[in-house]
Amino acid sequence: MMEFLNASPYFGVALTLLMFLVAVKINRRFPGALTTPLFLATILVVIFLSVFDISYDAYNKGAQYITYFLVPVTVCFAVPMYRQMPLLKKHAPAILLAMAIGVASSVFAVCLMCIFLGLGDIVARSLAAISVTTAIAIGITEKLGGVVALTVSSVIVTGILGASVSDMVCRRFGLTNPIARGLAIGNASHAAGTTKAMEMGPVEGAMSSLAIVISGLMTAVAAPLIVTMFFGG
Asked: Which residues lie below 8 Å from residue 105, measured CB to CB, with a gap of 6+?
């Protein structure tokens, strides 16, 4: 049985979809940050592979095809953003200022953490784009001379955690304005967080979609400047 699963090109896709459906059922029964479908499904897949001693390569033979949908799904985020265009234009100055502060804070925090923990400049260059969607983050990391594999894994973890705890964090800090909630989620946890923002409401989803684009562009400019300021060229 295990030999069949290891050889099947459909195993990874089937397992991913099955675990996601299980996670959705659990989340409906026990809603909470730890039962967010994206987060819980990831944990369930890891547990299954570990228990049955199935290698990641065997799983990824099929699971890799799911990643092909990442780009078109990200592009689809433009639809809710377009629908909220009048609102975006009305608050454009405040949105741009908030995004600039968020991007700068993220890169500064990474650099300071790497200095205080003695992680070195390579880690800082790899994590500078931690809050940017994967496609953009890879390009930034290559430009900075970081490790792309570390960037990708960190971006994935950031997105999953952001989607899991974003609603709880917003409620804990009394963040009720839909524009602020959407911008915060999109800026901190990119596409994965945006899926959660869309569940919160159309304005949150639109603002989070906008945040993905703006934070990506701003990080592409800010990350090299800030990293160079701390660690040199």
From this structure: none
